[in-house]
Task: structure prediction
Amino acid sequence: MKLHGLSIVAGQPVQSRGAGYRAIDPTSGLPLEPEFYEASEGDVDRAILSAAENFAELRRTPDETRARFLEEIARQIEQLGDDLLRRINAETALPLARLQSERARTCAQLRLFAGVVRDGSWVDARIDTALPDRQPLPRPDLRRMLVGLGPVVVLGASNFPLAFSVAGGDTASAFAAGCPVVAKAHPAHPGTSELVAEAIAAAARAVGLTPGIFSLIHGGPEVAQALVRHPATAAVAFTGSYQAGRALCDVAAARPHPIPVFAEMSGLNPVFILPEALRQRGAAIAQGLFASVTLGVGQFCTKPGIVFLQRGPDADAFIAQLTAAAKDAAGGVMLTPKIAEHFLEARQKILEEPDVSVLKINNVKDESRSGRSGGNVSQNAEGFGAAEKQVRPSIALTTAAQFVKSDVLRREAFGPFSLLVLVDSAADFATCANHLEGQLTATVHEANSELAAHAALLHVLERKVGRMLINGFPTGVEVSPAMQHGGPFPAASDPRFTSVGTAALLRFARPICYQGFPDALLPEALKNSNPRKLLRMVNGQPTRESIA
Amino acid sequence: MKLHGLSIVAGQPVQSRGAGYRAIDPTSGLPLEPEFYEASEGDVDRAILSAAENFAELRRTPDETRARFLEEIARQIEQLGDDLLRRINAETALPLARLQSERARTCAQLRLFAGVVRDGSWVDARIDTALPDRQPLPRPDLRRMLVGLGPVVVLGASNFPLAFSVAGGDTASAFAAGCPVVAKAHPAHPGTSELVAEAIAAAARAVGLTPGIFSLIHGGPEVAQALVRHPATAAVAFTGSYQAGRALCDVAAARPHPIPVFAEMSGLNPVFILPEALRQRGAAIAQGLFASVTLGVGQFCTKPGIVFLQRGPDADAFIAQLTAAAKDAAGGVMLTPKIAEHFLEARQKILEEPDVSVLKINNVKDESRSGRSGGNVSQNAEGFGAAEKQVRPSIALTTAAQFVKSDVLRREAFGPFSLLVLVDSAADFATCANHLEGQLTATVHEANSELAAHAALLHVLERKVGRMLINGFPTGVEVSPAMQHGGPFPAASDPRFTSVGTAALLRFARPICYQGFPDALLPEALKNSNPRKLLRMVNGQPTRESIA
Result:
């Protein structure tokens, strides 16, 4: 599979070649062919302007064409076959089995959004018919529906090279809402990005859509900022670290015309194990928790990074069970050397706090206390270095008092690590929860309805998180109408939206109201006839009927 | 009606007294009794913390109580009777007839939101039931609904002392969404604000709600910023000028935890009169337009501030008709001396541009060219001064070429003024529209379906505005499900939301997803039984049925 290494603007590889870079195979540490070239300012400008110019055409495209476009992207991705998976594997070290399921998820979510577009009711059509005789004033005919915002910049994630990248949930929901997309290739998987971008371009050709509705741009943070700053950019979707997400939010807010950014910036995903659950199901929870912490080498936004449980013999047993669950755990290669380095640094900071100790699991020496100095990456076998790219999972232990005191313990370490916090009494659960920032998820393990006695904990969590789980593990994120993947800041930049599930397209849509329009000039969704039997709110009542 | 002049925190007047100020009667220019006192930092802190502490209680209050609370606020406002209207009139110079209709609208919108709360379906409940046997992975039970964001700061408008102020649409929609409110009294109508705030406090007592869910704070821009900056503030609603709105957006975006601000910042509300409409209905349009421009002394967010029409004999006739329509137009007292001053300054800047001339209407001398110097307010009879508080309406004329060239001509002059732009050909309509910023509204006057030949104009406007009207005038803003009052920046800070109509409460709500919850622990809206027959999306299908 031949890669050209160029940005793709409106279906065509660009000819200008900025600074070159290569993807790194994280397993070997060696660069991969070919060279990729950062986009120029002119490329960025042409990509966004092309999106803006073709926005009107995409808006006026029949829904059926847009639905087929999304389905065709899925088909084109599937047609790339194992060549695509091999390239992703080379760029990310994610195993083929995982990539197969990620591909299935990516294609399923493209088809799910095709279904939403075909159904059509997502536009939330609302019609208030004229009341010409109303006193003291007549009411005009008012008809409102959601329409796309305009060009959407998609800044994908490193950890889902398909499902949250060039043709991932952000792109699928933007296209579904009728918005053109300019995606920036993540520098950790530029080859994957090129293959998927060509699949999107081929899909546009196949259904007869103008190629201008999609571009792929190569580059780093400066290019990302240029895309966000461009006057014709209407909205931004980002998945990644807090630092990068916050920087983009700040750029968007400082524009002459600020634009919405949905940044999903992850978090700690706290887990609370209530006493009865700990007593009854400690071993099972330990096993499930360890699997959740280490899934994909801990590189999930929803990885449980902190676990609260009550001090005592059951906690001692749980720690022993966790140690047992972990005893055969292998290390793993992280997505990029930089991510591994950041992980080890973040974990190190946590481990250096007072009253924090590392559980002796997996025959891992306490690597955090040795082998690293002066900010350099550890070169010994327990850390990460040129000779040994594997990062081993670890679990640490601290007290509720220390957790409440230390800001460092509330920071995410993105990787296979979790911190157990021993609380002294059941009342401490709510207190600790109160010290958490906004989160994507929170999980409570309970048994025999003991949660009924922890209403305070539940109420605190309801204010802090986007998704609450009982007796589950947060790392599975279903793509469905009821999913919420987001949460109060800093989990996401705007708690009112989600990046997973069918509601994700609401990030990229705005209402427009047509007053006094003749039927002929109204969009189809607002016409009297309602030929597609959309569910609409007519004079305050939901109905699929036409208007007489 | 005795006023105490104090901020009201959680139902109680505060004892601390900051800097004192008095409302000004804009008709006489004289201060009104009593003195009002700016809130201290401590008052701001206590008001927001009280809102935050009582948020959980408000969330758990049955919808029926919240609905009765909104209705009781309306009843309490009505019970204030004409005393309230007299105070508003003294503070704003708005005539009693207008205030009667504004009161009716304010109470109607409180009752409308009560209906929304009682109906309950606004929470957009979505349920994906568990699929334990699904391959390759089971699906957990997922249930999602909207909940209130938390304490909302309401910064009301000067121009709607009831409908967009302390108990206006922002407050009604925040309470409807389950959010406590801290309102800042607009310094132009502090007495009105106190009366309405006491009505809200009395309503809370009447229905047994804790007084902590509402506070009224006196103060200027620094106090507004302190309210927006407070860590426990969850969202902000603002209606007013671009400068003030943008400043608040910047403060909110710079917080350690940014929060959503909905700022409605007005605009030009362009009107396009197509040739056939101009020929057939020029006189009627002139009359309606002039009434719309001068309604409430031009102090509406939706005042048509710019009008495009094609040069030629019909335009000459229209200008004569407009002059005729205006011949008996009286001047009016603006809401505050400062607003009048800003208006005259903004208008002056427009009139000083090249190729801009003033129509000789209403026997008004070209006041813009004389009587003002060095930024001082004109003291002559045509301007605004100590002896003569009236501002007279005026209309100016320019060319499309000048409009396209001059940023100044794209700025709002908030008051009884509109600018006619003569275009050379029908193609210029779309070109001019392209040079407009985001707008709350745009209006097209057409006849004999001539609009069908102006698809380009319609497409440009659809990208630029929140509400499009055909053959109407934008100054009436219906409060109904289909209304959209907002638009692309700078009309509003976020085009995805509205401040008028039932959808306004979506500004203050966020989704939360409950995964694997036992029925007993779910909120009522998500329980299997669905006792209130809410319209919910169950496994992707809208239904009012319960779940077996």
Remarks:
- The first strand of chain A starts at residue 8 and ends at 9.
- The mean pLDDT of chain A is 93.
